[in-house]
Design a protein that fits this description.
- By secondary structure, this protein is α+β, with helices and mostly antiparallel strands.
- The chain has two domains: 2-95; 99-246, Umud Fragment, subunit A (Ribbon).
- The protein has five helices and twelve strands.
- The protein has helices spanning 2-27, 32-97, 123-129, 181-185, 218-221; strands spanning 99-103, 118-122, 136-141, 146-154, 159-163, 166-169, 172-174, 195-199, 204-208, 224-225, 229-238, 244-246.
- β11 (229-238) and β12 form a beta hairpin.
- The chain is elongated and about 80 Å long.
C-alpha cells in the first residue's frame, strides 16, 4: 500500500520541479544552467528521501505483521487454556453436584437394567428430595471399594419383611408393580425367598436388586446407611434399546 501512495506524490513533485525550472530559465537569461542543477539536486534529494521512506514503509508492515502473529499465537494459547480450565471446572461441578456417570455391571437389576449399560445417575435430585420408596439408588460399599445399583424398598424407621415372596412394610402388604411379571413367573414361585422382619434405624434403607435370585443386597449386607447412598435414579443412554430414565 505504501508504495502506491508515495509514488504518485513523487511524480507530481518531479513534474512541478521541472516546470518551475523551465519557467525560471525562460524569465532569467543565463541562469538556466545553475537553476537546472539546483532543481535536479532538489529532485534527487527528494527521490532519495522518498526511497528511504519507501524502504521503511515496506519494513514496518512486515515487523508489525510478525509482532501481530506472535501476539495472536500467544493469545490463542492463553484462550485455549482458559477455555480448558472452564470446561474442567464445569465437569467437576456437574459430576459432583448434578449427575454422576455410571456403568451397570452384572445382572442384579435385570431386566430393568442390563449388564454393560451406560448412563448417569441423579445427584441433584437426591440432594434435594432424598430417597423415596422404589427409587433406584447408587450405593457405595466402602469396605469393598465398589458401587451397587439397587432398588430401595424400605425407608428409615420402617419394619421390612418378605413373606411368600411378597413385600410387607410395617405388617402391611405393598405391591411391587415395577417387577417384570413374566420374568418373575419364570422362576415358578422361587423368585424371592422369605426375609425375617427387619426394623430400620433413622438413617437406614433396605435395598434389593430387581433380579432377586441373582442379587447381593441388603439381604446379605444388611440395611444401608444414608451416607452410603450417593445418588438416585438412572438415565440410560446406551444401549439405545434401553434409552430412558428409571425413577429419575
Amino acid at each position: 500500500m505504501s508504495e502506491h501512495n508515495n509514488h504518485p506524490a513523487l511524480e507530481d513533485t518531479e513534474d512541478l520541479g521541472f516546470l518551475g525550472t523551465q519557467l525560471y530559465e525562460s524569465m532569467t537569461p543565463g541562469a538556466g544552467e545553475n537553476s537546472a542543477d539546483m532543481s535536479e539536486t532538489r529532485v534527487l534529494e527528494t527521490m532519495t528521501v522518498s526511497g528511504k521512506e519507501d524502504r521503511r514503509s515496506r519494513k514496518e508492515p512486515e515487523e508489525e505483521e510478525e509482532k501481530s502473529w506472535a501476539d495472536s499465537a500467544a493469545g490463542e494459547v492463553l484462550l485455549f487454556f482458559r477455555d480448558l480450565g472452564i470446561c474442567m471446572a464445569l465437569v467437576l461441578v456437574i459430576i459432583n453436584f448434578v449427575i454422576r456417570p455410571i456403568q451397570v455391571e452384572g445382572n442384579s437389576m435385570y431386566p430393568t437394567l442390563q449388564n454393560g449399560s451406560l448412563g448417569v445417575s441423579n445427584l441433584l435430585g437426591y440432594n434435594l428430595d432424598g430417597v423415596k420408596r422404589f427409587d433406584v439408588v447408587i450405593v457405595y460399599l466402602e469396605e469393598n471399594k465398589k458401587y451397587l445399583v439397587k432398588r430401595c424398598v424400605g425407608l428409615p424407621n420402617e419394619t421390612v419383611a418378605y413373606i411368600d415372596g411378597r413385600l410387607y412394610i410395617d405388617g402391611e402388604y405393598v405391591a411391587e408393580d415395577f417387577l417384570d411379571q413374566n420374568y418373575r413367573d419364570s422362576y415358578e414361585g422361587g423368585f424371592m425367598e422369605d426375609v425375617e422382619p427387619v426394623t430400620l434405624g433413622p438413617d437406614e434403607y433396605f435395598c434389593v436388586g430387581d433380579n432377586r435370585p441373582h442379587s447381593t443386597d441388603s439381604r446379605y449386607y444388611g440395611p444401608f446407611k444414608e451416607d452410603k447412598i450417593l445418588s438416585k435414579g438412572v438415565f440410560i443412554f446406551y444401549p439405545f434399546s434401553a434409552f430412558g430414565a428409571e425413577t429419575w
